[in-house]
Amino acid sequence: MEFIHHPFIQPMLLPLAGGLLCFLIPRAWSRVCGWLAVLISAATCYLVWPLFLAAPQILDLAPAISLKIDKLSGFILLLTAIFAFLISLYSVGYIRQPEQQKPYFTYFLWTLAAAVGVLLANELILLLCFWGFLGLTLYLLIALNGPQASSAAKKTFIIIGASDSIFILGIAFFGLLTGSTRMDGPAVPLNHPHTYIALAAFIVAAFAKAGVMPFHSWVPDCGEKALLPVSAFLPASLDKFLGIYLLLRTAKDLFVLTTAVNLVLLLAGASTVLLAVMLALVQHDLKRLLSYHAVSQVGYMVLGIGTGLPIGMAGSLFHMLNNAVYKSALFLCAGAVESQTQTADMDKLGGLAKAMPLTFITCLVASLSIAGIPPLNGFVSKWMVYQGLIESGSTFYGSWIIWLAVAILGSALTLASFVKVLHAVFLTKAADTVRSKTIREVGWRQTLPMLVLSLACLLFGMFAYRLPLAGFIYPALRQEVVYPGIWWAGPAAFLMGLGIMMGFIFSLLAGKGKTRIAPTYIGGETLAGEVQVTGVDFYHTYQSLSLLKRFYRLAESKWFDVYDAASKIIFYFVELLRSLHTGRLPLYLIWVLCGLVLLLFLLLH
Amino acid sequence: MDYTTLLLQFVFFPGFLFTAVVGLVTSWIDRKVTARVQMRVGPPFLQPFYDIIKLMFKETIIPSGSPRLLFLSAPLLGLSGATLASFILWRILLNPGQSFMGDLIVLLYLLTLPAVAAILGSFASQNPLASLGGSREMKLIIAYELPFVLALLVPIIKAQSMRLGEILAFGSLLPSASGVLALIVSILCMQAKLTLVPFDLPEAETELTGGAFIEYSGPPLGLFKLTKAMMLFILPMFLVCVFWGGIHFAGGWNSMLLGFLKYIALIVIIVLIRNTAPRVRIDQAVTFFWGPVTGMSVIAILLAFWGW
Q1: Could you report the per-residue pLDDT of A437-479, keeping only the tens digit for each?
Q2: How far apart (Å, rounded) are the C-alpha atoms in residues B130 and A397?
Q3: Distances from the Cα of B227 to the Cα of A94, A430, A601, B84, B232, angstroms
Q4: A402 touches chain B (CB under 8 A)
Q5: B131 vs A428: CB contact, 8 Å cut-off?
Q6: How far apart are CA B170 and CA B190, in angstroms?
Q7: How much is the average pLDDT of A428-441?
Q8: Distance CA B260, CA B249 (A)
Q9: Apex A338 CA angle, A333 and A344, nearest 5
Q10: Which residue, A265, A581, B84, B214, is most buried by CB atoms nearer than 10 A?
Q11: How many domains does chain A have?
């Protein structure tokens, strides 16, 4: 039993045991669970830290149980633990109902344990076990939010479960080809049809987890219906980490990709960026909108990996980190707004900037960051992905122009979408539903993680090279990253910040602080409260353009939803089979007879 | 480079002060020519300076219920973005051999900052007309961003680099058909980026009474106006650098004069368009940019790809 003390095993066992403890705690004490989860995720951070620093090593416990740590998994391990800590802290303030607390924190800690397992596994079958367990805890976590979330939970479970089955198939082929399912073997060249099947299966599993189109449709449903910290933890951060981790392992260590495969990745990435952001643009529900962005942002990561170049991969990893930072921050803001106003419908929100200043500032910083405004972190990683695309040059038959144009347009559309969020939720005049209540800022357990994340947006942008890139990303890639472009993040941020400060001081001095507060001017008239521009319909102009009209109509009929399409096909066949079951005995006897004849024929043939 | 020199250059030359002065002079040219076209006398040379200075000492009126910090800092965000863009551009123009601070994509992003600032400021105004103005500005960005990016890819394809120094070293693209097309596309996009007629939808004085800036007054309004004047200098200069070979300071007075004439030519085009076209509707602007203009930029890219 001495392996329990091994540094590889402890970060897995601790959350597992903690979850079990939460599970066993009597109902009356369920308030303790939250703080227990905070404590355990903090302890997991502490346990993971030496693993992050450690040199790459492999631990073989038994023939089929092999664990491994290297810089890539160490980096993602650390991120997972830190995000678990921040979000468990937020959850303590958010999850107040005793009947939800106990199961929520139990599944939360088990999710953490399984994620650590996935990242440490050096054996594909072991990885698959943890991977499958994650699908289960995800289902349970979503289903916690009562009957309204059950269809979203079912959909998630089916999409993730189906991709897991495909993953098993891929692992079987991989084992068949290489004779082992270990992940530290030499990379497999794509010289046999079976290798392509294995590779495709791995990619499908990674795509479904990370929410790349066309396997994305569980993310918006989950975001809309699940408890908020669940969407902030799983689809927004953890599932991105794991999906991109698997994709990067597949692309770098398990297989030697060919140009055609890279092209497929680029195509998937670009279409995810564009289609998801177009869908996000017209959403009315804040959480659903954020979820579509969670899908769209993965597109950039897949684009980066698709280039196959160090700069693209570094950009992709950095974007994964940045996306987790600002997207969790945005989800946490949405949660704060929802917990104070009891709605996430942007038609009913408005004017919260004064009532919830900290939430507003977090949301502003995170929105600018996701839109790629320099000098924030989102800009740096997008810029790195763009360089990867430009650098790939003639490798992909000049197709980089399309991918780059799509990526930059996607970035402008992201800006548009978040400008709308800022307007509708925080800046426009307060809607009646909001004005009738006194709304206050959320408590420190919720604001602290939000502020930490928005500060990270700023710091990771300003000190991009020194802090995240040199600390985490270059070591994780083990490759030298050459920049074809130039961006002096630090000096530029310094100049812009100082420019804003100086301008502020100057305009204060010049105007001698003469300010007056006056009502708004609307052609000299006073408008009644109900005359209001919410901003939710800002982009109707686009919806009515003839080309886009068709796109939105297709989206409305769930044309882009693989779940819906698959269920239609399956129900078609089910109907066929059902038509055979008429309940009439003679018909069944005929079928039995036919079967017997067929068997006889086969056996005697 | 140490931070003191950097800061001094950023504030004085070739950063803020230089850009502001030249920008204001350019805006005087614009106003004067416009006045002459309309058979008016036009303002005296120093009028733009008077306007800005006077606004700086006026009272600031803040709309009730607006988030004050965002309302007041939005113009500064735009101003510092524009200044940084101009600083990078001019540092590279003055020392083409040195790599400095940012590349073409960085400039592309920095040049959208003034528009983003106008949107945030207008939304912070709590005024429905400002909201409409801000949303139009956003829709305009989406409309012109695609053709503008595609046009900027032409120099990247030609020079096989995204660094401004190397694009400048590659020289003018205008002898080639793709370069001419890309320049035309980006001139049209520039008009929209400057929100000048026919794309002055965000302000639309006759319908939205100033739109995005309706609630602004005093120093913040002055800063917005100053940013617009600076953009009138930066954007044409940016196009001259990227498509038209830039200005060569090493080559003596003749080449400097030539570079200056290129810039003036672009200004003349801007002023001519602005005085001869009526304002379009937002859906017309979007279909215009996503239709013919994007089509033109795609043709430019294909031509560049085949080496034309």
Answers
A1: 777 878 888 888 889 999 999 888 888 888 888 878 888 787 7
A2: 46
A3: 43, 31, 86, 12, 9
A4: no
A5: yes
A6: 23
A7: 74
A8: 11
A9: 100
A10: B84
A11: 2
- Over range A574-592, report the average pLDDT: 83
Question: What letter does residue A487 receive in the DSSP assignment?
Answer: B
Instruction: Say if residue A572 is in the same domain as residue A450.
Output: no
Q: Which residue of A has its CA nearest to B148?
A: A405
Mean pLDDT value across residues B70-82:
90
Residue A74 lies in a domain: no
Check whether residue A373 and residue A432 sit in a common domain.
Answer: yes
Read off the pLDDT of residues A334-347 as tens digits, 9 standing for 90 and up. Answer: 988 888 888 788 88
Backbone angles phi, psi at A261, to 5 degrees: -65, -45
Q: Quick check: A251 pLDDT over 70?
A: yes
Residue length of chain B: 308
Does residue A61 belong to the interface with chain B, where contact is any CB pair within 8 Å? no
Q: Report the candidate in A276, A262, A271, A267 with the shortest Cα–Cα distance to residue A305.
A: A262
* Residues with Cβ within 8 Å of residue A46, at least 6 apart in sequence: none
Length reported for chain A: 605
CB within 8 Å of chain A, chain B residues 184-243: 209, 214-215, 218-220, 222-223
Name which of A281, A429, A533 to mutate to probe chain B: the one with the most chain B Cβ atoms within 10 A of its Cβ: A533
Instruction: Quickly count: other Cβ atoms within 10 Å of residue A5's Cβ.
Output: 9
Distance from CA of A235 to the nearest CA of B (A): 28
Q: Is the pLDDT of residue A530 over 60?
A: no
Interface membership of B255 toward A (CB under 8 Å): no
User: Residue holding tokens 């795609």?
Assistant: B298
Instruction: Find the residue in B nearest to A427 (Cα).
Output: B124
B60 DSSP assignment: E
Kindly state whether residues A569 and A503 are assigned to the same domain: no
The identity of residue A392, as a single letter, is S
Structure tokens at A459: 């710091």
* A358 touching chain B per CB within 8 A: no
Residue in B76, B103, B129 closest to A500 by CB: B76
Reduced DSSP (H G I as helix, E B as strand, rest coil) percent helix, strand, coil of chain B, to 5: 75, 0, 25
Q: What is the C-alpha separation between A218 and A394, in angstroms, rounded?
A: 36
**Cβ separation of A500 and B141 shorter than 8 Å?**
no
Please count the CA atoms within 13 angstroms of the CA of B124 that sit on its side-chain side: 23
The range of the structural domain enclosing residue A271 comes to: 257-513+531-559
Does residue A341 sit within a domain? yes
